[in-house]
């Protein structure tokens, strides 16, 4: 039986893609590599605080989808389908990034290519790809997680939820206290439970948030989210202007970004699950993984040829340009049977039904 389509996930995925691209486009200004006045930099830091919720949102959505699907306990489904949908596009885009790096370094030798590609097994060839590595690791555990969590009784699930909250609370405290006392106040057992830098907890948290029946008033979600946003942003701006940018409190594993992501997740769940979009966003959603994989390569190429950002407007223009070009390239690659799955992780049949140029032409002809 097919799972009912979760509409608010489409909105969350779309938001997440824009936020991730924004983070990497605005990064040179936020980190101080490109100088702008403090007001512009502060505004971009506030927006980047929201941007850091993208990966936690992706983990939460995956957590809910994986841990509520009975197919998850079947190892054959994991190895033949789910892992393949992640690994194949990862290798494909890692190859392209490798070729770009080699060309930029004037090192187009076969031995260099082999060396780079062998390193892909241990280290992401480009920084943003860490998320896919972590997601693959969690997927490998997913059959065990599914059976363990779904066989817990109500009390056991409450215990697990509270335990995750305490793990994140410790992460929050560790992020805001000085480094010289961080180890003193740390609770070692909780610190040891931060598997995969806390992202496993975010993954499982998505299961609980997606399954939650209780309605939390929007005013509470907005208030908690705003206070959290204010705390993260003001602290980061203060540290940045006084010393230099670190992003320590913004970090996805610090807990504060996860809290903000949880507020966004629940707000979308409670308000957008029955809202029909006036614009068909399904094609964009289907390309979201491909956009995530390729956007930073385009960003680096554009920076290399001289397209740098200089302020808020230029960040928006470059961000929009990257997303548009990603969509054009992915739609084109998905129109070819050979490159479709390699580039997107989506089957050629599904691409024909949801987002490639064949789909677009068929939709146009039916109008």
TrEMBL record:
<keyword id="KW-0808">Transferase</keyword>
<feature type="transmembrane region" description="Helical">
    <location>
        <begin position="12"/>
        <end position="31"/>
    </location>
</feature>
<protein>
    <submittedName>
        <fullName>Acyltransferase family protein</fullName>
    </submittedName>
</protein>
<feature type="transmembrane region" description="Helical">
    <location>
        <begin position="219"/>
        <end position="241"/>
    </location>
</feature>
<feature type="transmembrane region" description="Helical">
    <location>
        <begin position="159"/>
        <end position="178"/>
    </location>
</feature>
<feature type="transmembrane region" description="Helical">
    <location>
        <begin position="83"/>
        <end position="103"/>
    </location>
</feature>
<comment type="similarity">
    <text>Belongs to the acyltransferase 3 family.</text>
</comment>
<dbReference type="GO" id="GO:0016413">
    <property type="term" value="F:O-acetyltransferase activity"/>
</dbReference>
<keyword id="KW-0472">Membrane</keyword>
<dbReference type="Pfam" id="PF01757">
    <property type="entry name" value="Acyl_transf_3"/>
</dbReference>
<feature type="transmembrane region" description="Helical">
    <location>
        <begin position="184"/>
        <end position="207"/>
    </location>
</feature>
<dbReference type="InterPro" id="IPR002656">
    <property type="entry name" value="Acyl_transf_3_dom"/>
</dbReference>
<feature type="transmembrane region" description="Helical">
    <location>
        <begin position="128"/>
        <end position="147"/>
    </location>
</feature>
<keyword id="KW-0012">Acyltransferase</keyword>
<dbReference type="GO" id="GO:0009246">
    <property type="term" value="P:enterobacterial common antigen biosynthetic process"/>
</dbReference>
<feature type="domain" description="Acyltransferase 3">
    <location>
        <begin position="7"/>
        <end position="329"/>
    </location>
</feature>
<keyword id="KW-0812">Transmembrane</keyword>
<keyword id="KW-1133">Transmembrane helix</keyword>
<dbReference type="GO" id="GO:0005886">
    <property type="term" value="C:plasma membrane"/>
</dbReference>
<feature type="transmembrane region" description="Helical">
    <location>
        <begin position="281"/>
        <end position="302"/>
    </location>
</feature>
<feature type="transmembrane region" description="Helical">
    <location>
        <begin position="43"/>
        <end position="67"/>
    </location>
</feature>
<feature type="transmembrane region" description="Helical">
    <location>
        <begin position="322"/>
        <end position="349"/>
    </location>
</feature>
<feature type="transmembrane region" description="Helical">
    <location>
        <begin position="253"/>
        <end position="269"/>
    </location>
</feature>
<keyword id="KW-1003">Cell membrane</keyword>
